[in-house]
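ugh ok fine here u go
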Amino acid sequence: MISKFTLKSVFPLVCIIPLIFGLSFYTYFSFDKTKTPTPLHGIPLILLLTFTLILLFFGEFRNKMIKVELHNTFLTIKKFGGLSFSKKYLYQDLDGFKISVLRSSATNNEYLYFMQNGKKIGKISDFYHKNYLDMKAEIESKLKNLGFEKFSYVDELKEIFI
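structure:
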C-alpha cells in the first residue's frame, strides 16, 4: 500500500515560492545603497520570513510530506514529498507506533509516528494522507501500538533541526 497526499497538503509548498521571491526582493531593497537605511531597517521582517521558509521547507515538506510504502515484511519512507531516497525499515526492527492528536478550533488531526529505538523515524497523518485510515489499519496489523503521545509543538520544532 502506498500513501497518497491530500490536495490541502500541497498548500505549504505553494507558499514557499512566493516567500522566496518576497524575501529576496525585500532583502535587496532593504539594503539598497541609494537610500539611507535606519539601523536594523528590515532585519526583523527578514528574520521572520527566513524562519517561515525554514519552517515550511524542513518542517512541512521534509518531515510531514512523507511518502510511505507498506509491504509484507518492511516499509519504506521517502521524505520531501517522495522525492528523496527511500529508507527501508523491517517491521521486526521497529518498536511500533504511537498516535498523537493535534487539536485545533476547526478539526483534530491525527498523527501516527513510526518508532525505532525510542525515536520517531517517520509519521503519517490524516491531514497529509488521504488514505490514512487504510494505512493505519494495515500498520496496526503489523506493528505494536505503543500508546498515545501528547502532541508537542516543542518536539515538532526540534524535529525540524534534527
